[in-house]
User: Fold these one by one.
Assistant:
Number 1:
Amino acid sequence: MTTDKPMIRVRIVADDVDQANAAALAIGQALTITRESSPRPRRSGDGVTVYLDAELPPADRGALDSAEQRDRRIR
C-alpha cells in the first residue's frame, strides 16, 4: 500500500502491554494510525515494544511561516 501522505513510524517502549496500549491510544488521538504491531517483549527482558505507522497531519503553512520568522529574529 503506497500513499502520497507523509508517514512516520513511532516506537513505543513500555513496562507492560497495558501501558503500550494506552500510549498507542493517546497517539491515535493526534495522528491517523495506519498500522500497529503486536506487542513484543524487549530483548533486555524489561518491558514491551510496539510500533505504529502513522500519517502526519497536513502542515499549517501559517504556523510554519510564523516559526520561520521567529527563528530568523533569534539568530
Note: The radius of gyration is 17 Å.
Number 2:
Amino acid sequence: MNRNNYHMNDADELLNRGEYLLDVRETFEYELGHVKTAKHISLTELEQRATELPKDKKYTHTARVAGAVKQPQIY
C-alpha cells in the first residue's frame, strides 16, 4: 500500500493499524457508497465539526477527488 494512495479494499488493514477513517466527501457521494466504519464529515463542515474527532488517532482521509484529500491536513 502506498501511504498517500489507498483503495477502499485497504480499509481493514488501516483499521487494524489503528487508523481512523474520515470520509470528507459530500453527503450525496457518501450515500452512494462508503466504508461502514468511516466517520463522515464533509469537507465543507470539517472546520465546524472538528471537535467531534478524537485527538489521539492517526487519520486517513477519503475523498472522491484526490485534491480534496490534501485540504484537511491539519489533522
Note: Residues 11-16 form the longest helix (6 residues).
Number 3:
Amino acid sequence: MIVQVTGPASPPPWRWGLTFFAVAWDTALQDHIPHQVLARVSSWDLLTSFLAMPVGNALAGPLSEAYGSNRVLVVCAAVLFAAGLAPLALRSTRRLTRRAEPVAPPVPVG
C-alpha cells in the first residue's frame, strides 16, 4: 500500500522526477525563448516529443519477433539512457541558469 503524504492533487512518488523535469523544462523554455515565438517552439517541442511513440509502437512487434523481446528491450533501454545523457555533453546545457531579467515582451505593432 502506498500512502501519499503530499496531498491528493500531487502525482504519485514514481512520477515526481517527471514532474520536476516538466516544470524545469517549461521554465527554461519561457526564460530563454522570445515570447513572440514561444508558442511555435513549444508546439514543435511537443510534436517531436510525441512523434516517436507511434513509430516505436509500430516497430516493437516486428522487431521483437525478429530479434526477441529481451534484446529489443535492452537496446531500447540503452537508446533511452544515451538520449537522456546526450544533452549533458553540451556545455551550454550543463551551465543553463535562469536569467536575471525575463525575455523582453513583444513590441506592439501599429
Note: The helical segments are 16-32, 35-67, 69-85, 91-94.
